[in-house]
């Protein structure tokens, strides 16, 4: 198995190297887009099984957003739900022989953490305006501005490290046990890897939602004083 710290190119498009993790990422994105297009092509008032399963998934995402943050789910449903599904499929890609999940390489978790960082800024500005978002860094007083900015950066870094470390370690454990033991021995570890992949996708999505709503709430005006929270 190649080192997760050193990505080797799968093919070369002229001078541009195309990594295996990028190809798998594109394949997952294509499956998500195709699946969404097929599911929403012919919606019914009396849903079939596939539509029922999709509606159950959307309802579960809405419920989790509402329970974890107390915020209305509609503005965040698309981003958080897509983030969860992509990470889940990426983590479970390890069950395909010869495939290293994109989340076990450094590039994909770093890109996902960067997306969350941008989403925090986007939703924060949309919720409280640019002025409110910037003044949120001055809570509880302006002395905390450098620490609050540093906190925003370290949140994204911690999400990257958590996702990358957990998925990469699980892939290595299964690979090592599979090379040393009989064929059937790694199966319980593969089941555990399925559970771990789902848990990591859930944690990443929940943390993203918590950080986003925190940024939105900091930028909201105080209804009692009609002043911006400080």
Provide an overview of this structure.
The protein is built from six helices and four strands. The protein has 230 residues and is mostly helical. It has a two-stranded antiparallel sheet with strand order 1-2. Strands 3-4 form a two-stranded antiparallel ribbon. The longest helix is centred in the C-terminal third of the chain and has 36 residues, at 145-180. It is globular and about 60 Å long. Mean pLDDT is 82; it is low at 223-230.
Name a few traits of the molecule:
230 residues, mainly alpha, two-stranded antiparallel sheet, 6 helices, globular, disordered C terminus
Task: Work out the strand percent.
Answer: 5-15%
Distance between the termini: 51 Å
Helix count, per DSSP?
Answer: 6
SS-based class: mainly alpha
């Amino acid at each position: 198995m190649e080192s997760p710290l050193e990505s080797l190119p799968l093919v070369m498009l002229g001078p541009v190297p195309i990594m295996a993790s990028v190809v798998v990422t594109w394949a997952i994105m294509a499956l998500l887009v195709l699946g969404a297009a097929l599911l929403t092509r012919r919606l019914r008032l009396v849903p079939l099984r596939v539509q029922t399963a999709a509606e159950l998934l959307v309802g579960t995402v809405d419920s989790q957003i509402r329970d974890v943050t107390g915020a209305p789910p509609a503005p965040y449903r698309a981003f958080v739900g897509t983030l969860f599904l992509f990470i889940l499929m990426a983590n479970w890609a390890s069950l395909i022989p010869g495939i290293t999940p994109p989340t076990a390489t450094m590039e994909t978790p770093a890109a996902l953490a960067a997306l969350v960082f941008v989403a925090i800024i986007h939703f924060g500005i949309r919720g409280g305006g640019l002025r409110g978002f910037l003044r949120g860094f001055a809570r509880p007083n302006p002395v905390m501005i450098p620490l609050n900015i540093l906190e925003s950066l370290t949140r994204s870094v911690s999400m990257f490290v958590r996702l990358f470390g957990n998925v990469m370690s699980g892939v290595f454990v299964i690979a090592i046990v599979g090379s040393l033991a009989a064929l059937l021995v790694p199966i319980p570890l593969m089941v555990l890897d399925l559970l771990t992949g789902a848990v990591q996708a859930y944690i990443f999505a929940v943390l993203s939602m918590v950080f986003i709503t925190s940024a939105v709430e900091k930028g909201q005006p105080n209804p009692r004083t009609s002043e911006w929270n400080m």
